[in-house]
Structure to design on (260 residues):
C-alpha cells in the first residue's frame, strides 16, 4: 500500500485488442454493460474509495444483466486513479502578444483490472484460423516456429497449446508449450519466441501444433509441418572422411587376409 492516505476514484472504461502480441488499449467507445456494473464496498455501491497509509480494502464486482441483454462479449477495465495526482505528459509552447505561454497536457495515472465478460455464443469451428510455419531446412537448431491464431467470431476464447516434435520413427522427442492466452473476438494473436531449443539435428522431423479450446463440442486445432536438418558442411565432410577411412581400412584388412 501507499505510505500516505489517498483517495481513489473508480471508473469503468472499455478496451480492445491492440496489435497481435496480446496487448490491449483503452477506448472511448460506449460500453453497453456499464449501467449494470457496480463496485461494492460492504454491500454499498461506490464511485471512489479512501485508504489510509498502508491500508487495503476488498471490493466486490457485481454485474446484474437483464434477461434479454444482447449476446455480445464485453471487455472493460476497472480503473482506480488518484484524484489529486496529475502528471504532465507533454507541453506545447505558444508565443502571444503578452509573452510566452506554456500549456500542459495532463494525465491522471491509474491502475486497473481487465474484465472479459463472455456473453456471445461460440459461432462455428471455422471462426478460428491458425498459422503454423517453419523453415523447411535447418543446418542446426534451435528451430523457430511461427504460430498465430485469428478469431473471426465475436466470442473471446481461452486457449493453451503445445508444439510436439517427432523424429522419423514417429517418436515424440521434444515439446514446446505456448503461454495460455485469451483471444478476444475479431482479433489475431501471434505467439512470440516459439522455439525448439535442440541444437544437434539430423534427418527429417515433424512438428505438430495442438491448441486446446475449452469450449463445449469444439475440437482442438491440430496442424503439422515437416522440416529436414543436416549438419554444417564441415561436419558433413568429417563424417564422409571417417566413412571413407573406415572403408579403406576394411579393404586393406581384407586383402591382407587374402595374401595369407
Amino acid at each position: 500500500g501507499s505510505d500516505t492516505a489517498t483517495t481513489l476514484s473508480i471508473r469503468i472504461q472499455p478496451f480492445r485488442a491492440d496489435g497481435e502480441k496480446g496487448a490491449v488499449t483503452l477506448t472511448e467507445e460506449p460500453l453497453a454493460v456499464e449501467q449494470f456494473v457496480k463496485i461494492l464496498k460492504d454491500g454499498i455501491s461506490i464511485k471512489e474509495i479512501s485508504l489510509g497509509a498502508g491500508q487495503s480494502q476488498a471490493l466486490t464486482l457485481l454485474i446484474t444483466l437483464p434477461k434479454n441483454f444482447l449476446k455480445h462479449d464485453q471487455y472493460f477495465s476497472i480503473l482506480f486513479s488518484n484524484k489529486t495526482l496529475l502528471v504532465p505528459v507533454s507541453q506545447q509552447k505558444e508565443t502571444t502578444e503578452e509573452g510566452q505561454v506554456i500549456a500542459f497536457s495532463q494525465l491522471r495515472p491509474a491502475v486497473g483490472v481487465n474484465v472479459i465478460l463472455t456473453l456471445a455464443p461460440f459461432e462455428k469451428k471455422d471462426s478460428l484460423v491458425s498459422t503454423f510455419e517453419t523453415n523447411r531446412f535447418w543446418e542446426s537448431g534451435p528451430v523457430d516456429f511461427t504460430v498465430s491464431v485469428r478469431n473471426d467470431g465475436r466470442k473471446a476464447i481461452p486457449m493453451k497449446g503445445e508444439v510436439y516434435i517427432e523424429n522419423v520413427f514417429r517418436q515424440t522427442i521434444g515439446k514446446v508449450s505456448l503461454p495460455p492466452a485469451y483471444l478476444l473476438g475479431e482479433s489475431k494473436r501471434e505467439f512470440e519466441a516459439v522455439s525448439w531449443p535442440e541444437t544437434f539435428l539430423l534427418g527429417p522431423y515433424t512438428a505438430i501444433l495442438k491448441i486446446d479450446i475449452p469450449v463445449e463440442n469444439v475440437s482442438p486445432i491440430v496442424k503439422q509441418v515437416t522440416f529436414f536438418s543436416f549438419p554444417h558442411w564441415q561436419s558433413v565432410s568429417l563424417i564422409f572422411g571417417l566413412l571413407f577411412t573406415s572403408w579403406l581400412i576394411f579393404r586393406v584388412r581384407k586383402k591382407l587376409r587374402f595374401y595369407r
In short: The first helix runs from residue 233 to 259. Residues 1 and 54 are 4 Å apart (CA to CA). The chain has a mean pLDDT of 83.
